[in-house]
């Protein structure tokens, strides 16, 4: 099974709407590893790693987010990384 790692930067109304917790739940459900955190500029940053299909499915979810979010743009770049579990990190 092919593995993929992506670094995401999610823009829009994505802080204060449960985005990080919802992403962590989705990641755990899909078996994707990595982390998610708020950024001081109002965006959310995430690192996703796992099998190609699972990472693609979480990326598709990232464009929508939880019900209260309004995602305007998702930047995704290929990254390197191996992680255990999925965590919510402090704001950076």
Notes on the protein architecture:
The protein is α+β, with helices and mostly antiparallel strands. It has a single domain, classed as Alpha-Beta Plaits (2-Layer Sandwich), CATH 3.30.70.100. It has two helices and five strands. It is globular and about 35 Å long. The N and C termini lie far apart (33 Å). The mean pLDDT is 96.
Any chance you could write out the topology, listing elements then pairs?
Blueprint: E1 3-13, H1 19-30, E2 33-38, E3 44-51, H2 52-62, E4 70-78, E5 86-88
Parallel strand pairs: 2-5
Antiparallel strand pairs: 1-3, 1-4, 2-3
Helix pairs in contact: 1-2
State the total count of DSSP E strands: 5
Rg measurement, Å: 12 Å
Find the structural class using helix and strand composition: alpha+beta
Q: Which ranges are low-confidence, i.e. pLDDT below 50, for 5 or more consecutive residues?
A: none
The major pleated sheet works out as:
5 strands, mixed
Question: Percent range for helical residues?
Answer: 25-40%
Mean pLDDT: 96
- Into how many domains do the coordinates divide? 1
Based on Cα principal axes, name the global outline.
globular
The CATH topology turns out to be Alpha-Beta Plaits
Order of helices and strands: EHEEHEE
Total DSSP helices:
2
How far do the termini sit from each other? 33 Å
Strand content: 35-45%
What's the CATH architecture name?
2-Layer Sandwich
CATH class: Alpha Beta
Largest beta sheet: what is the strand line-up? 4-1-3-2-5
